[in-house]
Amino acid sequence: MLLKAKLPPLPTFIKCGNATFASGKSHFGRTFHLFDMLFVTKGTIYMKEENQEYEIKAGEYLILAPGLYHKGYKGCEEESAFYWAHFSFPNSYRLEEEGEINWAAIFLKTNTHVTPDIFELCLPRYKRMEHPEQVIALFEKLLAAERSSDLTERMKQQSYFFDILVYLQKSAIELPSRSQEIAHSCMTYIHAHFHRDDFQVRDMAKELLFHPDHLTRAMKKATGLTPLQYLHQVRFRHAKQLLEKGVLDLTTIAIATGFKDVSYFARLFKEKEGMTPGQYRRIPTYEREK
């Protein structure tokens, strides 16, 4: 099962702790109104959610969903220890069957000057971690903040918990190293040629000795963007830098960023940033840096 939710807003951390069950002890039964994450560090915890049974061994985690009855279906066979964390989502979430997880499914929409990047958090609800010591370190950091009397540290609990979720998601994404290398070659090529108004993916593919479809798949896996989407991202980032300097006219900026038609450039800029190039240029520097 997968847990999915659009971000932002971020999940809300409620409380965390750690516990040790003696041999023979089991988790009590309840229908909880929050998500309950269990990460086992020693032994095995036997949990049942509705009709599904889970043996959560050391190095594995389980995310129990709100509204579903869960309990320990048998006692531990040895002393078992685990971290737990309660959290919720300000907006909706979805529980779905297993499917492929990659960056193409996670990165939904590029930000503008007035709207944020949109992502989809996508977590397996039950998984074994390859590097459990890293998860332990993240939980210890969260737990230290939970127990701290320093209000500054306690305020950081939300970000510390989100670090855990991001790490779990990243660990679930299988990104072949070859795809990463191909995507890096694409990005390097785009940064070197984005100013050309005759930029074509097929020319890049010919230069890099790959089929265009192969490049597109590699870029989607690595960045969540197609080569053309990444090209526009680079072009508009450069355009904004030139606009901020306030020296060049719009026609010159359009040409310098790969657009031979200034009207087309202005229309795309407004679609992406929510304002015209002229409006962006007039924004005070301190406003742009917020």
UniProtKB/TrEMBL annotation:
The keyword Signal does not apply. PROSITE patterns: HTH_ARAC_FAMILY_2. One of its GO terms (molecular function) is DNA-binding transcription factor activity. Keywords: DNA-binding, Transcription, Transcription regulation. Residues 184-283 form the HTH araC/xylS-type domain. InterPro entries: Homeodomain-like_sf (IPR009057), HTH-like (IPR037923), HTH_AraC (IPR018060), RmlC-like_jellyroll (IPR014710), Tscrpt_reg_AraC-type_HTH (IPR020449). SMART domains: HTH_ARAC. This is AraC family transcriptional regulator. It comes from Paenalkalicoccus suaedae. The lineage of its organism: Bacteria, Bacillati, Bacillota, Bacilli, Bacillales.
